[in-house]
């Protein structure tokens, strides 16, 4: 039982950088979900299509590691996008049990439409911040990424 004078979090917990990052992430994610929904797409679909676009031939297991999700989650997304004709699996040239992922023409078209939505969200954010603050935010976020990786 917690006494009234015991706090479950430290003072200033809601002022932490990590909490601000999470709030920003949730706000952006919510907007992405709202704006991508009319396209029949979720942010996870966009992320997967972008990843395969940037590195055609990725295997599901490698994609899961890069996206920091389970292989089962990637398999489910891949199956959904494959059923829509947006992704195809191809046999790996040297490893017969590995299948590479590739965008189809329909996948490239879906990605193009979704990327326009994401670019509009980006414009909204950067216009709200202005060019100097946008550049500063990108620099700071890169520094956060590096600091966390180095921890």
TrEMBL record:
DNA-binding in keyword set: yes
Pfam families named in the record: MarR_2
Domain HTH marR-type: 14-146
Biological process, per Gene Ontology: response to stress
Keywords (A to Z) from UniProt: DNA-binding
One GO molecular-function entry: DNA-binding transcription factor activity
Record PANTHER family: HTH-TYPE TRANSCRIPTIONAL REPRESSOR YETL, TRANSCRIPTIONAL REGULATOR, MARR FAMILY
Name the record gives this protein: DNA-binding MarR family transcriptional regulator
Organism of derivation: Streptomyces violarus
């Amino acid at each position: 039982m917690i006494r009234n004078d015991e706090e479950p979090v430290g003072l200033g917990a809601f002022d932490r950088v990590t909490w601000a990052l999470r709030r920003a992430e949730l706000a952006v994610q919510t907007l992405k979900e709202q704006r991508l929904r009319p396209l029949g797409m979720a942010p996870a679909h966009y992320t997967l299509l972008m990843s395969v676009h940037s590195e055609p031939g990725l295997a599901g297991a490698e994609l899961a590691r890069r996206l920091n999700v389970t292989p089962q989650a990637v398999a489910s997304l891949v199956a959904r996008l494959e059923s829509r004709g947006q992704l195809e699996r191809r046999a790996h040239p040297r490893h017969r049990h590995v299948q590479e992922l590739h965008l189809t023409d329909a996948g490239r078209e879906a990605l193009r439409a979704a990327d326009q939505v994401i670019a509009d969200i980006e414009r909204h954010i950067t216009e709200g911040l202005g060019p100097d603050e946008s550049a500063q935010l990108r620099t700071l976020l890169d520094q956060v990424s590096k600091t966390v990786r180095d921890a």
